[in-house]
Fold:
Amino acid sequence: MRVSAPRRRYHWHPPGVLFLLMTVLVGAAAIQRGENLLVWIFATALSWIVVSGVVSGAMMMALEVRRIVPPHAQAGTPMRVKYRVRSRGRVFGLFSLSITERTSGLSGLPGLSCPMEPARFVHCGPGESVIAEGTLRIDERQRLLLTTIRCQAAFPFGLILKSVEFTQESAVIVHPRVVPIDDRMFRRAIAGTGPHAVRRVGRPGWGDDLHGLREFRAGDPLRSVAWKRSARADGLLVIERAAATSTRMMLVLDLRHPDRGDPARAEEAISFAASLLAHAESHGWLFGLEIVGAEEAPVGLLRGRGHLIRCLDELSVLDLSSIVDDHRTSAGSSSPAHRVWVTLGDASLRRQSGWRTTLSLTDFAALRKGAV
Structure:
């Protein structure tokens, strides 16, 4: 990522302003009284101010910095931001530097003032480079754009604050908050529909269900022999297991409700959907995502961490103002899968019908792990 030319500035902060005021008072007294001691004190204080500006300015002129960020982050979880700092100076290095960020939001979401713990380091020698690390806490899902790196130092006396700003754009997709889901409670919520259990299919494999018996073949393990049935037959019979299929869950997020005007409830529903997707991925399920009323196409049934990130990316950049309040139902999936609907409605809307279960925000509170 290209880094633009830096912008440098001097800043007066409270310690420097207080010291400058004292210097002016001492200078006025030295002029009025003409005492050597006051003149020496005034000259020393004035030289400190000049040295602070010259030394800090020369140090910051030789500064190079690049940002290193992950492509994804989690809302409510501190994100580590690393900076590779290099000193191009031949004599003086860098001392007591702190690094912060300026942020903005994309995809129609508001730019937030994200609290940040600045990255700091004590010393970087001439021609050397160091890695400094800060933490950025992002409380809302969004596509975050990091634009400006601000480096500042008050070395050597802390009187004048010198800052240098570099422009380097880095986009980070901030996923919705994910909370642990109680597996037992979730399975109970969708019980009776069957797909949350491992199902027997009509072909042999390595599952737990019984597929049938067959004649013994060379290489079959002895522990698979059905000894009682073999005793009544002319030869050895082997127990053959049935292949198993994984759970298939298509999560349907339905935000077509008057309460969508309440951003807090809509964001909670999005967090509910993200939590269920993360739960499905952690248990090895096949899962997909469909957002009713959105322009984006449904994300098909797959499994794995990469597929989870793709689904969470869709939720992260979802613009609530783009949801169409029509009454068309979901188009459905070509593969048989249990459809879990997450709505903004009340608990009375929860229902089970064949392959479909509807869950509301009240169910979210009950399904959280550790909920009483």
Summary: The first strand starts at residue 7 and ends at 12.
